[in-house]
Design goal:
Blueprint: H1 10-27, H2 31-65, H3 67-111
């Protein structure tokens, strides 16, 4: 026997309602009913927006605590980018050297058949 389903958060509840209302709107053939459902969906979307804003405000302190960690990661990413840029420059230089060697071999082959 399966256990009870976990309770949905208020945001999840309204999103579930929004999803089902959209399905009903798509299936509806009655213009008046569709209009009423669209109006109800607008109210539901406003509620979802308000709940998301409240959730974001409640988590602002958590995000601020992560600022130091994020800045440290960004510093590491910048250093990695600089390292990669140096590697790209080295590869570009090596490719030019290889092209130069190929040119020298081509010239030498014309003068001194191998």
């Amino acid at each position: 026997m399966p256990g009870p389903e976990p309770a949905l958060s208020p945001i999840d509840t309204f999103q579930f309602l929004h999803y089902n209302l959209l399905r009903a709107i798509e299936a509806s053939t009655d213009g008046a009913a569709t209009s009423t459902m669209r109006q109800a969906d607008n109210v539901i979307q406003d509620a979802i927006t308000a709940l998301n804003r409240a959730d974001f405000r409640a988590r602002t302190a958590e995000f601020q605590q992560l600022t130091g960690q994020i800045n440290a990661q960004l510093t590491q990413l910048k250093a990695l980018k600089e390292d990669m840029s140096r590697i790209v420059a080295d590869v570009t230089l090596a490719a030019k050297v290889v092209d130069g060697i190929d040119s020298a071999i081509g010239v030498a082959a014309k003068i001194f058949p191998i």
